Amino acid sequence: MEKSVIIIFVFFSCYQHTQQLIPLPDFIHPCSELNDECFTQATLDAIPGVVRGIPEAGIPPLDPLYLDKNITMALPGNVKMTFHNGKLLGLSTCVPSKVSSRREKRTFVFDIQCNFTIKGHYSIVGRILLFNLNTDGNAKIKIWNQKIHLEVLEKVVKNDKGEGHYKINSYKYKADYGTDLKLNLTNLFRGSPEISANILSVLNSNSQLVAQEFGGPILDYAIDYAMNVTQKFFDAYTYDQISHVPLTDDFFEED
């Protein structure tokens, strides 16, 4: 009787342990060596599935990404423009051109290109051309070929079960804000579509400035959010699940 109880206890303990590991989604393809080609293809394969969301890992859908704060920018001529209730569409369009692991520096490097559309409500105060503006309306901004260079400092920690998990120590990025930008704002000059079109033309003629002033804070928000979601992914799956590149013991850190 005692032997049967022990066997059942051992079986239950093993079963409980295996149940704690969330099965890896079939769109995640672990690499077995430090190879740029493999990392790039694995990232390309993973993006659509991760962007759709992984409910079992607590990862919500990322396209569209809703902005929970207002974005304000300053334009030439002491013009102040604020973006309200925004959403960013296009994370699913992101394509990695190169993904590298610099193992000696414990850093992953991503070079990615995306097409973004930003929608929301805007308000604007200031003077453009000969017109004083104090208005609001709907806004839509399209940015094509947004190039992002992202460096993520990584580490692998062991939890109290002896499982290794990736942790994001820090990250930094550079962006060129796209090869083209188109800004669409309704109701810029109340009652005159012609004047509104002229003002909009002036704004679009400074597209790179608009992209930097406007796209910068939004991209900051999007990348910070994406890094938080990536950490959730790393917390849900062990290092051995998402990577088949062996690590020496000195690479692991205690949680």
Describe the structure.
With 255 residues, this protein is of the alpha+beta class. 33% of the residues lie in helices and 38% in strands. The protein contains five helices and nine strands. Strands 1, 2, 3, 4, 5, 6, 7, 8 and 9 form a nine-stranded mixed beta sheet that branches. A hairpin with a 4-residue loop joins strand 4 and strand 5. The two termini are 40 Å apart. The model is unreliable at 1-19 (pLDDT under 50).
Detail the topology: elements first, then pairings.
Blueprint: H1 2-20, H2 36-52, E1 65-66, E2 71-75, E3 79-89, E4 95-102, E5 107-128, E6 131-158, E7 164-175, E8 180-185, H3 193-205, H4 207-236, H5 239-242, E9 252-254
Count of individual beta strands: 9
Mean pLDDT: 86
Given the C-alpha coordinates, what overall shape results? Answer: elongated
Structural class: alpha+beta
Low-confidence stretches: 1-19
Q: Nutshell version of this structure?
A:
This protein is an alpha+beta fold. The chain is built from 5 helices and 9 strands. A hairpin with a 3-residue loop joins strand 2 and strand 3.
Primary descriptors:
255 residues, alpha+beta, 9-stranded mixed sheet, 9 strands, disordered N terminus
